[in-house]
Specification:
It is a single chain. This protein has 320 residues and is α/β, with parallel strands linked by helices. The chain has one domain: Aldolase class I (TIM Barrel, Alpha-Beta Barrel). The protein contains 13 helices and eight strands. Helix 10 (201-213) links the parallel strand 5 (188-192) and strand 6. The chain binds glyceraldehyde-3-phosphate. Residues 57, 59, 100, 223-224, 258-261, 291-294 line the site of glyceraldehyde-3-phosphate. This is Deoxyribose-phosphate aldolase. Pfam families: DeoC. InterPro entries: Aldolase_TIM, DeoC, DeoC/FbaB/LacD_aldolase. It catalyses: 2-deoxy-D-ribose 5-phosphate = D-glyceraldehyde 3-phosphate + acetaldehyde.
């Protein structure tokens, strides 16, 4: 991941001028989702692209070192060598972009990837700042970021304090995220908005802008723990904010939908939306990620079907 966004001054005038047309967003989403599905060899190529954009995630209260080690092993061999060979790809060339874990699991993830000699190919992303609620004192939230970075995390997925958005405390939100950016040092800052708890598209758009103005390198939809997580309409709103920020400042910010993205068809719908809304510059893992714990298995099943004409059993590609 390259350094993308140094941020800019908070522009309240810009925020105050925003009004998102909800009906138009839903219309655009329906239009994008009615497009013909990608088929055949193109579909396999798009699915492999999707794999390389995954932050392979485990964020369970029952996470152990062993399942983080398994997650890392799966991230390294994301698609089996047999399948890659059948698809005409060189074995060993398809990995997920990152593994995403709780802060306490950063050391084992870093050590495992190092042992597998994959530390330069797969990043370790850590959630932080009182994930998933963010309802902790700022000092402990900042300390959590510093700890994860010190233990070797390359990317920090912070959560915003939703109350600042709901109460429209944009200056406070901007200042908190700026401090989090500073705490990240050389690690990249991915800001989770928890869109399902923000109340309106206007708030989603404004929170996206504030997060980018404060220096977020990526904006991310959800923790995966809210009742409503990543949806295409909310993705469109965030992508429009990214595009507007890029047009005004010249800085490209990445996008990460997360939460409930489980099927190969979901991944294709998101990639099509990104291509249409942001263009080809965003169709790579420097600018786009899926936050997903269960997506990889379904993509493998779809690739297996593409190669053999048969669907694998639900347990054949269980991990991912
Ligand atoms: O950031 C990633 C999300 O927590 C993953 O959510 P998921 O388990 O619904 O795929």
């Amino acid at each position: 991941m390259v350094v993308l966004n140094p941020g800019c001054e908070l522009d309240l005038g810009w925020l105050n001028s925003i009004h998102v047309n909800t009906a138009a967003v839903h219309q655009r989403a329906a239009n994008l989702q009615s497009r013909k599905a990608v088929k055949g060899p193109y579909q396999a190529a798009w699915l492999l692209r999707a794999v390389t954009c995954i932050d392979l995630t485990t964020l369970g209260g029952d996470d152990t070192d062993s399942n983080v080690m398994r997650l890392c092993a799966k991230a390294c061999r994301a698609v089996s060598e047999d399948m890659l060979e059948a698809l005409g790809f060189e074995a060993g060339n398809i990995q997920t972009a990152a593994v995403c874990v709780y802060p306490a699991k950063v050391p084992i993830a870093v050590a495992t990837l190092k042992k597998m000699k994959m530390e330069n190919k797969i990043n370790v992303a850590s959630v932080a700042t009182g994930f998933p609620s963010g309802q902790y004192p700022l000092e402990t939230r900042l300390a959590e970021i510093r700890w994860a970075v010190e233990k070797g995390a390359h990317e920090i997925d912070i959560v915003v304090d939703r109350s600042l958005v709901i109460n429209k405390l944009w200056v406070d939100l901007y200042q908190e995220i700026q401090k989090m950016k500073e705490a990240c040092g050389s690690a990249h800052l991915k800001t989770i908005l928890a869109v399902g708890e923000l109340g309106s598209f206007d708030n989603v758009y404004k929170a996206s802008l504030v997060a980018m103005m404060a220096g977020s390198d990526f904006i991310k939809t959800s923790t995966g723990k809210e009742a409503v997580n990543a949806t295409i309409p909310v993705g469109i709103v965030m992508c429009r904010a990214i595009k507007d920020y890029w047009t005004r400042t010249g800085y490209q910010v990445g996008f990460k939908p997360a939460g409930g993205i489980r099927t190969a068809a979901d991944s294709l719908a998101w990639l099509i939306m990104i291509k249409e809304e942001l263009g080809n510059d965003w169709l790579n893992n420097k600018m786009f990620r899926f936050g997903a714990s269960g997506l990889l298995g379904d993509i493998e099943r779809q690739l297996h079907h593409h190669i053999t004409g048969r669907y694998a059993s639900a347990t054949q590609f269980a991990m991912g």
